[in-house]
Structure formats: C-alpha cells, structure tokens
C-alpha cells in the first residue's frame, strides 16, 4: 500500500484523450467519481493513455520481480483471477496445489521431513508477509520460553545486518521488537557473522541472515553464523535460532551452489522465507515461508475457522487474496523442474558476467558486487568530482533504462552505487545494448562537464578567447621588457 495525499476539488479535471473524445465530450474529475457512466471503450482508452507514461517493466532493472512468464501460465492466472485463495473448502484443488508447493520448497531447502510427511509452511503475499509471520513465531516461542523460566519477556530484540530490507524494520516497529543492526563498512556490505553473534543477548528472539543482499546480491555466511551461535548457546543456554531471508537467493542457491550450507542442513535454521515472484519466476505478489518442523510454529498462532464450509487452519496477516500466483507457482515448478530452474539461473549468471565485463571495459566504474550470489551487477563511479551515480541513473532513462542509484546503509553511507538486476527476460542482446548506452551517457556527461568547466573558468570562457590571447601577448611583452630593464640598468630603453 502506498500512502497518498488527497487533492482539493479545485484540482484540474482529467481531460479526455483524442480517442476517448469520440465517446466523451466533457472532462472527467480526477479525484471524485464522475456523475455518469461512460462507454467501456472510452474508460479503457483514458486509463491506457495514462499508463503509457509508466516505465517498461522489462527495462526496469531496479526490480527483482518477475516481468515475463509463458503464455500458458498467463492463461492459468487469468482463469483463476476470480478465485479467493482463502475459500479452501470451495477451491480444494487450489489448496492442494499450495500444499504441494510448500512441500516442494521444503524439500528444496533440505527440511528434515520424509517423502510421505507434510511440511510446515504457507503461501504469503510476498516475502514481507512471510517475514512478519516468521518473526511472530520467533517472538512467541521466545516469550513462552521466558515465561516458563519465570523471566521478563517485554524487551525482545532481533539481530540483523544494516543491509536488510525495510520489511524487517516494519516487523520490528509494528510488533514492538528492538532491531539491533550490525553496521556495514566500506568493502564489506553484508552482515559480519562474528559481530552479529557478539550482539546476541538473552532477549534475542533470532538472528536474521540474508541470502542475497538487496544492495549487492551477496550471500551472508549462514554456516559460520550457525557455528558461532552454537558455541554461544552452549555457553549461555539461550538457544538463539536463525531465520534465513532467502527472498532473492532462495531460488538461486539450490540450483547454482548446491554444496553451500545455508538452509535446514544447519541445525539452528528454524525458518526460511523466499519470494515466488522473484527468482521463483511468478508475477507479483507471492511469497513462501517454511518452518523446520511443527514445533517451530507455535500452535496458538494458528487460527481454525469453519464458517467457509470446513475446518481450516490458517496463519496469515491478511485474509482474502487471489489464487492466481499460487497456481502459477505450481505451473513453474512442474513445467521447469530442477533442471529447468538450473538452466535459467545459469543463463542469468552468464548475462550478469557479460554485463560486468562490459562495464569494467568502460573504465569509469568500480564493480561492488561479487560473482557469487544473486545475478546482479552493482557498481560505483571511480571519479565523482563532476557527476554522480544519480546523474548516470537519470540520463540512462533517456534510453528507457530504469537503473536505481542509492547510497549504502549505516557506516558506509558515503558509498553510492548503481545496480542492475538480471532476470530471466534480460537477454544477452539487452546486456550488450545497455553497455553501449551506458558508455554513451558517460561520454556525454564527461563532455558536458568539460564544457561546464571551460565556461566556468574565466581564462577559458568561450566569450573571452580574444581576451585570453591578448593577455598572453601582453604577458610575453611585460616579461621581455622586465628582462631588458635588467640588462640596461633600469633605463627603460628596450
């Protein structure tokens, strides 16, 4: 939800487009419902015309969100657009598909369940809701443990890196949990597991590790964090767990780095969230959260309802939502399989490599991102005297490219970068085109900076070339006269 401000009644009305004027002869109000209905053709054209001013999703390189799917999947989504996911008794097949997806993800993340066991998890509206649910489960488990021990439970905290997405800050603020952030430093833009373990205390409900930082795409070292917390738990008896935010990297690591230990293979990892609408290859918005076992999700958080036709356990923040994305996720899983996802992720990484090498050849940037992680390229300017990454970002929009520019979080705010996210629909040809356009922008910015310097410098101003020449000639003769005076003993005779 985006908060908006309401315009006054004196705001200009919405003028009809050229095409819509064939049906509508009066201007439509912008912020009030019109008094009368208009033809569907006109309504479509008016809205379509305004939407033309939006950016092209395929060229939106700021977003991790899927912007292309196969036509067959589109058809399935449209066919399910009128199904309310929460009506499980009315739509039992949709519910079954969700359960299958949960189990597929749990097995992908090496949850300790048998082939005939049911995994514990739920589909959500993106990873934001998934993180809220996982955080609530950690908070409730910690509270229950503290109460059983007769200890206060009014000051919970969670340890994260300063590179976490805003949804973690929202969870902390909305559910009254202190957010303890491990600060970043230049050249190291992910959470330091050693510092994170040091910040843990008896009130820490969990440590949140990021598998695929939004800033640089890097994977945090969950294995080292698990080992450090294991030792600390032995010393203190706190039993601090780990949550892995795999929103961006959860559908990448299993296919590209199968030997990397970050998931339920590590004993302290109790829950994992992942975004189906990112590298799960589904349109927004769908996320998933899975728990290691049933004991990690407190029963008192689960609601049982029966007024929709049958007993239905539910653990969500919102109630009604569409079924389309759940169905699309199942389509992608059975359509692609492990091999298909692996090929797509490998192709994304190859395109990221092409882009990274092309940006390096321009010679104006430092690559900030690493080669292992989410397929993206984050890069900063070597020289920011005459222009910044924000200037580069703004000028790239002239070619249609939407490339975000931003500063790093706490203790690294002086570092500003550009970031290009490589998705399935970002082809090799687009990567090469982006390099060409980026090189053009850099040449133009440097040429403009040179002209600006020349104009701003009195000695080299365009309108003072004659004055410059005269000063040079006068200076030469003054120097010559001075030398002659010395030779002549100060007589002044040349």
Automatic annotation (TrEMBL):
It comes from Carex littledalei. This is Glutamate decarboxylase. GO terms for molecular function: glutamate decarboxylase activity; pyridoxal phosphate binding. NCBIfam families: Glu-decarb-GAD (TIGR01788). It holds the Pfam family Pyridoxal_deC. It catalyses: L-glutamate + H(+) = 4-aminobutanoate + CO2. Belongs to the group II decarboxylase family. GO terms for cellular component: cytosol. It is an enzyme of class 4 (lyase). It comes from the Eukaryota. Keywords: Decarboxylase, Lyase, Pyridoxal phosphate. Its EC number is 4.1.1.15. The keyword Lyase applies. The modification N6-(pyridoxal phosphate)lysine is found at residue 278. One of its GO terms (biological process) is L-glutamate catabolic process. Its cofactor is pyridoxal 5'-phosphate.
């Amino acid at each position: 939800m985006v908060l908006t401000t309401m315009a006054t009644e004196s705001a200009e009305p919405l003028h009809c487009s050229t095409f819509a004027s064939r049906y509508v002869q009066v201007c439509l109000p912008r912020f009030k419902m019109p008094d009368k209905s208009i033809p569907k053709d006109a309504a479509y054209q008016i809205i379509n015309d305004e939407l033309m001013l939006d950016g092209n999703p395929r060229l939106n390189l700021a977003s991790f969100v899927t912007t292309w799917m196969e036509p067959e999947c589109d058809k399935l989504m449209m066919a399910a657009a009128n199904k309310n996911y929460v009506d499980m008794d009315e739509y039992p097949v949709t519910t079954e598909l969700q359960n299958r997806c949960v189990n597929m993800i749990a097995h992908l993340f090496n949850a300790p369940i048998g082939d005939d066991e049911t995994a514990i998890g739920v589909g959500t509206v993106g990873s934001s809701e998934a993180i809220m649910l996982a955080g609530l489960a950690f908070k409730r488990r910690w509270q229950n443990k503290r109460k059983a021990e007769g200890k206060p439970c009014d000051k919970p905290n969670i340890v994260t890196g300063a590179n976490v997405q805003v949804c973690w800050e929202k969870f902390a603020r909305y559910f009254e949990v202190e957010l303890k952030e491990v600060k970043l430093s230049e050249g190291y833009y992910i959470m330091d597991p050693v510092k994170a373990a040091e910040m843990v205390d008896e009130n820490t409900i969990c440590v949140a590790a990021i598998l695929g930082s939004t800033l640089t795409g890097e994977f945090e070292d969950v294995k080292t964090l698990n080992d450090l917390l294991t030792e600390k738990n032995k010393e203190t008896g706190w039993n601090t767990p780990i949550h892995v935010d795999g929103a961006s990297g959860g559908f990448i690591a299993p296919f590209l780095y199968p030997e990397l230990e970050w998931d339920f293979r590590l004993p302290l990892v109790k829950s994992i969230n992942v975004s189906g609408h990112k590298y799960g290859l589904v349109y927004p918005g769908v996320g998933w959260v899975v728990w290691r076992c049933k004991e990690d999700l407190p029963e008192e958080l689960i609601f049982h309802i029966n007024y929709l036709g049958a007993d239905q356990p539910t653990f969500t923040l919102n109630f009604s939502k569409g079924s389309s994305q759940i169905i699309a996720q199942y389509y992608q899983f059975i359509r692609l399989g492990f091999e298909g996802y692996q090929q797509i992720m490998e192709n994304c990484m190859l395109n990221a490599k092409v882009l990274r090498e092309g940006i390096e050849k321009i010679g104006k940037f430092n690559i900030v991102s690493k080669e292992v992680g989410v397929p993206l390229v984050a890069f900063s300017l070597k020289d920011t005297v005459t222009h910044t990454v924000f200037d580069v970002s703004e000028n790239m929009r002239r070619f249609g490219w939407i490339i975000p520019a931003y500063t790093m979080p706490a203790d690294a705010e002086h570092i500003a970068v550009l970031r290009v996210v490589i998705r399935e629909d970002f082809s090799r040809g687009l990567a090469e085109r982006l390099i060409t356009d980026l090189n053009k922008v850099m040449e133009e910015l440097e040429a403009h900076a040179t002209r600006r310097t020349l104009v701003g410098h009195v000695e080299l101003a365009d309108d003072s070339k004659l004055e410059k020449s005269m000063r040079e000639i006068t200076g030469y003769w003054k120097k010559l006269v001075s030398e002659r005076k010395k030779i002549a003993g100060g007589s002044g005779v040349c």
